[in-house]
Predict the structure.
Amino acid sequence: MRWVSLLATAGVPHAAIDRADRDDGEGLLVVPCPGAWPAAVARARADARPVVEGPPPARPSEALAVVQSALGALVRPDLRGVLVLRLDDPGGVTGTYLRPWAHPPVPSEAWAALWSNVGEIGRLSVFCSPAWVDEDGALRPSRAAQPDVWAALDQGVASGVADLECHGFTHLHPDRASWARAPDRFESKDWYREMWPPRERVEPSVESQEEIVSAWQAACGRATTIAAPGDRWGPNTIEAARRQGLQLFSSSGVCRLSLPVPTWSEGIGTHPLSEVPERPFAEGLPQVAFWHDRDMALNSPRWAREHITRWREAGATRAWAFADLAKAYGTEIDASVVDGQVVVRQAPDVPLLIEPSATA
Ligand SMILES: [Zn+2]
C-alpha cells in the first residue's frame, strides 16, 4: 500500500488494481511484491514499458526518484516547503462549556494579527462549527451566540487569507437532549465529539454523519476538507465525507477522498503549530500544523506569528489552506517525454515540479 500512498501524496496519477487483467498497459507498471505477476511483467518488458518491482525505498523522496528514473521524467505539483495551516474550533461550544478546556474569547487584536501574519506567506484553513447549543440543548446559529468570533472570521475570509472548513456542526454529541441532562456534561470531553463520539460503542451510520456534514455545508458553503472533532471518527465518517463531496480528510495524515479508493498520505505529518520537528520539509512533502482558538485566547497576539516564524526557519516557504492542497490534487497531470522534451498537456493551476528540469 505504501506505493499507492506515496503516489497519491505526491499528486502522481495512478490506478491501483488487484488483478493483472485489469492492467490497461499504459504507464509505469509497479508490482510491489516481486514475482507476483510474472506474465504481466514479461508482457510489459516485451513492450519496452517501464516496470518497477518491489516495495518502495524507505524515504518518499527516494521512492519518487525511482519512479522518475523509470519513466525518464516526472511532473507533479511542487509541494516543497508547503505548510498547510489548520486552526480548529472557532464557533464551537467546547471552549465555553467544557471546564477543563474553557478559555476567554480570542482578542480581536489576535485575529487581526493572524490574518496579517499568515497573509505574508499564504493562507490557512479554519475548521469551525457553525451551530451553537444552549444549555437546555436548543440549537441556534453560532453567529448569534458569538458575533465577535464570526465578525473576525468574516474578515479573514473576505481578505482571502482564510477558508472555512468542516469541524462538525456543533462539536457536540448529536444527542443534545442527553447532553443537557448529563451530570458530567461540563467535565467530560467525551461529550464534545460529534462524528463518532467515544460514548457510542458502535459507529453512527453513514447517513447520520452525512447529515452533520450537510448541515455544516448549509451554514458555511461546500468545504473541501473535514477534521473530526477531537479526531474521533470511523470508516463511516470517511464515506459520509466522500458522499458530501469533500476532497480531503485531515487527521494524523491527509486522506484523499475523491480517488476511487480513499487513500491516506505517506510523509505528510500533522504537528502542533508550536512543535516544529527536525527538518520537516526534507522529503519535499507538505506538512500540516494545527492549533486551537484556545491557544490564541491564552497567549499573546504574537503567539501565532512566533511559531509561524519557526516553521519558516525550518524551511516553510508557503502557507496553504487545505483548499489549495485540494486544488493541487484536483487535476490529474498529463505529461510525457516527446523528442527528449517534457510536454505537459494537462496540470492543475499550481507551480509544478518537473524533473529532470533540463532536457531529458
Ligand atoms: Zn475541535
